[in-house]
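Q: Got a minute? One more chain.
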Amino acid sequence: MATRRHLRHAAHTSARTYAGEFNCMPMKRLFCIPAILFVSLVTAGATEQGVVDHSAVIIRDFRQMPEKGIPRDVLRHSKGLAIMTVVKAGLIFSGKGGQGVVVARTGHGWSGPSFIATGGAGWGLQIGAQVTDFVIVLNNDSAVRAFSRRGNVTIGADVSAAAGPVGRTASGAVAPTAAVYTYSRSKGLFAGVSLEGAVIGTQRDSNFRYYGRPVRADEILSGVTAPPPGAAPLRRALGR
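A: Always. Here it is, folded:
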């Protein structure tokens, strides 16, 4: 059974892995701590392979929603995808954290996964918990390059974002209106789901553990680094 000291260390370590580290003002800190601790402990246990396998499940689930799913043409013309699960919880003050992967098209099919994460804190009249799956469609090469950097990507600032068209009848032939399209599916009590302003960062430690050596995000997404065998289910779920 984990000691209280171990739980505090796990929560602290998990929270610091997120691109937007929780930043509470001193007067709010007392209220922020429960939300941050909850989110950190929920997301801390996922292994890299578990994140990759869950990303494959998310893609399959989105493909199986004919009326509200991602149009085939949008996926077919995409340059890459970012796939994440974000947990948000709070009582007046809230914390959120999420993990996932980004992949890109290469001359040899889909790249291996590069690990990403997001996090933050907020406040307002909100109560409850929410788990949201996000698929971010990267519509052009500049969006892929944004996720290939070592630093962070701010949705809406570094890349323009718009809610993507949905359903089989949605036209995918029209030129994309934003660098990325965002899609989400939520379960919980919070109302409204948006990634506008979210900061998403590359997780270099996760990439190191998954590939067994230091490897940059751009090396993964360009196909210079070969996808490991564990990425095969995700690449099959992505299709062409």
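A: Residues 1-42 have pLDDT under 50 and may be disordered.
Q: Perfect, thanks.
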